[in-house]
Specification:
The chain has 2 domains: 35 residues; 56 residues, no CATH class. The protein has 2 helices and 4 strands; from the N terminus they run αββββα. Strands 1-2 form a two-stranded antiparallel ribbon. A hairpin with a 7-residue loop joins strand 3 and strand 4. It is globular. The chain starts with a helix and ends with a helix.
């Protein structure tokens, strides 16, 4: 399987992931009577935490029982993502 196939599979997976996350946002946030008590101004598209006033890189998700997410307003987040991608690429090449 060539590199082009891996890229296409990766893009299809990302599109699928964004669609699922958007559906989750519509179900959890936009339904009437939702009582999630948080500041929606720091959530981009309802799923990406972007708060430059918060110094943490890892932050709890809006629904804490669902785990943790990244603060995309911090430069360290992008370094962490880049490091992970480079690690996966290095392991794949070995």
């Amino acid at each position: 399987m060539g590199l082009g196939n891996y890229i296409l599979i990766g893009l299809a997976f990302l599109i699928f992931l964004v669609m699922i996350l958007e559906l989750r946002h519509k179900i959890l946030v936009e339904r009437p009577g939702n009582t999630i008590a948080d500041n929606m101004n720091v959530w981009k598209w309802g799923i990406f935490y972007f708060n430059s006033a918060d110094s943490r890189i890892f932050v709890p998700k809006r629904i804490a029982s669902l785990g943790w997410t990244l603060n995309f307003a911090r430069p360290g987040t992008y370094l962490l993502i880049l490091g992970f991608i480079l690690f996966v690429a290095l392991v794949r090449c070995l």
